[in-house]
Design goal:
Radius of gyration: 14 Å
CATH architecture: Orthogonal Bundle
Strand content: under 5%
Low-confidence stretches: 11-21
Shape: globular
Distance between the termini: 50 Å
Number of strands: 2
Structural class: mainly alpha
Largest sheet: 2 strands, antiparallel
CATH class: Mainly Alpha
Number of helices: 6
Helix content: 25-40%
Number of domains: 1
CATH superfamily: Cytochrome c-like domain
Length: 133
């Protein structure tokens, strides 16, 4: 019986990310190579990909969705979607095609390019410690 593709992708990400879940991640661990924070914020805030329909996003004036988790504190989270290691390359891959990484996720593939996913990941990692009013 063949292993499921999502499980293979998750295992590959864990192996390539050098995952060490025994230590607390730091902000320095969350640098997204070639990610543009300002562009990522603009992509999230403009509503084109519908992020705020499911997530509460600090500093973004739009409806505060509750279907997905609030996005403040992304850099300090150990996991993405409750099961993937919170590493930049893993987050970028998940943003590009969430169901390919976690088949049971409610987050749809919204058609992000690799560059858009890098920019959004870079922005999400700046939300460390930001709380909703």
């Amino acid at each position: 019986m063949k292993p499921a593709l999502p499980m293979l992708l998750a295992c590959a990400c864990l192996a390539s990310a050098g995952c060490d879940l025994s230590r607390t991640p730091t902000f320095d661990d969350k640098h997204v190579l070639h990610g543009d924070v300002a562009q990522g914020r603009a992509l999230v805030a403009n509503g084109r990909f519908g992020c705020a329909a499911c997530h509460a996003i600090p500093g973004v004036d739009s409806p505060k969705g509750v279907a997905g988790p609030p996005l403040h504190g992304m850099a300090s989270r150990a996991f993405i979607a409750g099961q993937l290691p919170n590493k930049p390359d893993v987050l970028v891959g998940f943003l590009r095609d969430p169901p390919a990484f976690v088949a049971s996720t409610g987050m749809p593939n919204v058609g992000l390019t690799a560059g858009q996913a890098r920019d959004i990941a870079a922005y999400l990692y700046t939300l460390e410690g930001v709380n909703e009013p």
